[in-house]
Amino acid sequence: xxxxxxxxxxxxxxxxxxxxxxxxxKVFQQPKYLENFVQSIFDSxxxxxxxxxxxxxxxxxxxxxxxxxxxxxxxANGFGELxxxxxxxxxxxxxxxxxxxxNAFGGIVLSASHNPGGPEEDFGIKYNVGNGGPAPxxxxxxxxxxxxxxxxxxKSRFGDIDLDVIGExxxxxxxxxxxxxxxxxxxLMAKIFDFELLKQSIHNGFITLRFDAMHAITGPYAKHILxxxxxxxxxxxxxxxxxxxxxGGHPDPNMAHAHELxxxxxxxxxxxxxxxxxxxxxxxxxxxxxIFVTPSDSLAIMAANAKLIPAYAKGISGVARSMxxxxxxxxxxxxxxxxxxxxxxGWKFFGNLLDADKITICGEESFGSGxxxxxxKDGLWAVLFWLNLIARKRESVADIVHEHxxxxxxxxxxxxxxxxxxxxxxNGIVEHLRSQLNSLPGKSWGNYEVKFADEFSYTDxxxxxxxxxxxxRVGFVNGSRIVFRLSGTGTVGATLRIYLERYERDVSKHDxxxxxxxxxxxxxxxxxxxxKKRTGRTEPDVIT
Length: 544
Fold this sequence. Notes:
Elements: E1 3-7, E2 21-24, H1 25-28, H2 33-43, E3 52-57, H3 63-77, E4 81-89, H4 92-101, E5 106-110, E6 122-128, H5 137-147, E7 152-156, E8 167-171, E9 174-179, H6 183-192, H7 195-203, E10 209-212, H8 218-229, E11 237-238, H9 259-265, E12 273-277, E13 284-288, E14 291-293, H10 295-304, E15 319-322, H11 328-335, E16 340-343, H12 348-355, E17 361-364, E18 368-371, H13 379-393, H14 397-408, E19 410-421, H15 423-436, E20 444-445, E21 448-455, E22 458-459, E23 466-467, E24 472-476, E25 481-487, E26 494-504, H16 514-517, H17 519-529, H18 531-535, E27 542-543
Parallel strand pairs: 3-4, 3-5, 4-9, 10-11, 10-12, 15-16, 15-17
Antiparallel strand pairs: 1-7, 2-6, 5-6, 8-9, 12-13, 13-14, 17-18, 19-26, 19-27, 20-21, 21-24, 22-23, 24-25, 25-26
Helix pairs in contact: 2-3, 2-5, 7-13, 10-11
């Protein structure tokens, strides 16, 4: 094997966010930019010589070229085997499953998740460790330090690999396996859910469904499982072919972007169930006929009904949610006497809890939920969970949701996103909020009296690691909350997310529109953070 070591100099903008490094494609196309980051990943790892590395991505623009570069660099750095999804395609949860199933050392996942794709849009790369989950902060901190001191990178000299042909080749001393991207994941889902019951429910017409794959990675997975295996009508999965630019759409499964699905589900003759997934397949939107299920409610309902699913029939060990996620799942955990953990945003924080069997089901308000079957959130898993639940309970989505609210109360909840805010202005908003924390307890706005105000810090109960500055919380005596947080998933400026939550026990008030019910909190939030005043904007870019 001929290996070259190419001299390089550091870039100063390669600090990973909550889900790796995300930048515009043109940034990654700069000379040696991708190579610097990949070499910094390998330089952060220990004892991987001869080990297996999984590689795959969501198929967005630059995916194929990046994989060819990574293959040659992995060979030069001493990996013994590479497992790659056919066409370079692997959903993020499928990659996690493959790492775990084949005892790989780790994996490189190429995705910018729910961000747009194309030559002028976004690309991303992250490293997943041996448990199948995103690298913990200790590793990403080391990675970032390496990006600041890198002087050269290694690359083997051999031709490009044909990513489209399933099979095995050896190049440069490394075994390269191209595998079916869907098969292992579909096998796993069949072990978790009652596929026979789902087949019957679809065949007899009790369940009709539409799934919007948004021209993203989940298309082939959903087609195979929902249509080919479970028997949903051809065309039930639409926008099913992954495209490098996601068909010009924004592959974020929410009501602001999944227009086609929303029209179907709120239209005449709506099917029983509707769902969508995002760019890399780890997020989900769940809908029924004329109803949208918030991710926070979805997590709580799954936790409350987990025993109805074959894989969780013996019960679950605990639950966890990200801090900004509504407290709906906390109420379930309290009633079922289950441990409930509140973590920072970022799926990596669930990893230790899952590995230690402290939790079985977890989720985030940002349309992500999952369980101990992999170490990533999993969009299609959530869809199958809901389908299995509908089939077992023999109820509609709306009935399941209202039944849950009657038992546990409703956490009326929404999120307001102000996207691409100038970084200096965004940081100024956070500093302004910090300056008020000590003076807020005891302050009142109408019926809302502040009980506490703090900046969330998390101590991992498994390894004792501490993560500080994870968002600002303002809690009220009546159980309501406002949370402010800068997101780490964008590529331009900063996104300020404002989370608003009000608990309502009165059944007669459960059908309120969230924006109406939360109007007072929305006004208080603006008084606290001044985002409209400081940015000149009149409304959020996205409300979910």
